[in-house]
Amino acid sequence: MTSELPASQLSSSIVDEIEQLKGTFPGYRRAHARGVCYDATFVPSGVAADLTTAAHLGNEPVAATVRFSHTDTDPHLPDADRAVRGFATKFHLPGGGTTDLVTINLDRFIASTPEDFLHLLEAAEPDPATGAPDLAKVQAHVAAHPSAGPALAAAAKLPTPRSYGTTTYWAVHAFLWRGADGVARPVRYRWEPVAGEAVLGEGEGADWSATQLTEELAQRLGEGPVEFTLKVQLGEPGDPTHDSTLVWPAERTEVTAGRLSITAEVADQEHWAAQVFDPTQLTPGIELSDDPVLAARSAIYAVSYDRRSHGR
Ligand code: HEM
Prior knowledge:
Helix 1 runs parallel beside helix 2 and helix 1 packs across helix 7. By secondary structure, the chain is of the alpha+beta class. Strands 1, 2, 3, 4, 5, 6, 7, 8, 9 and 10 form a 10-stranded antiparallel β-sheet that branches. It has one domain: Catalase HpII,  Chain A, domain 1, CATH 2.40.180. It is globular. The site of protoporphyrin IX containing FE has 30 residues, from helix 1, strand 2, strand 3, strand 4 and helix 2. Belongs to the catalase family. It holds the Pfam family Catalase. InterPro entries: Catalase, Catalase_core, Catalase_sf, Catalase_SrpA-type_pred. It is an enzyme of class 1 (oxidoreductase).
């Protein structure tokens, strides 16, 4: 097992370990490799304007670009797979600039720290004797890091959505909103599908094409926008902000910050696929929490970006 690494080495060690475990697919993201980008408009409800000064959460609609993705490093895995899905949004701010909100269809993460994530990947390495992961090693990791258990269990039985537009997505980490009053408030985001939840039943999906979810979305968009509401849980004193394996009580006060309407595939897919959606790309009025996984992601994504943008 890797001993603790300096932050500068940790990001490349994690990406190296992902490549070792899942293979290298030149030119693709090291996670969420296959995805498609879409044009969207975000209409804020105005409710958040009292709680944060963030420009896109005020009163005026903003344009956005979103990317739906399959979580794997292998861009060729079929859409019927039981796999986590990603939904990344880049809001185009009034007056220029962008801010990102990156979400998955799980409400919590599988590691409390980037080091724990690396150790989990190491525990999942195939046993040279059998070519398969040694389950005992993964179980030992979970026994030593019990808060990883719920997300790992949820991921293992996560049903495949019928559509990218029929599942809920969470940002997983806590963030801080800062209002004009100077007060910082912990928040957790999720996108709720206006179309409601719809997932594949057991045994369904055998007739799906490998890119069914993209084709389905094209068809759905032909009938009108695909919409999500941005729900925001407001944390209370004592709610954990430092650990994305932990969630907050469901009865926390929530606000509906706005509605996103996805309208069409972007015209320049290549341009948008090349971008990074970085959860630490914030804007005044939104700040990072004390979650070390959140803090680490920007450098990890930069390593992936550097490799893929050089055709590696
Ligand atoms: C230590 C933890 C993590 C590692 C090592 C990791 C790794 C990566 C990498 C290498 C990429 C590709 C970046 C690029 O080339 O642009 C990526 C993308 C992504 N990650 Fe993570 N990630 C972590 C945590 C998370 C968490 C907690 C979430 C939950 C929201 C998440 C959601 C996503 C999504 C949705 C994408 C695709 C973004 C896009 O469409 O461009 N990741 N991740």
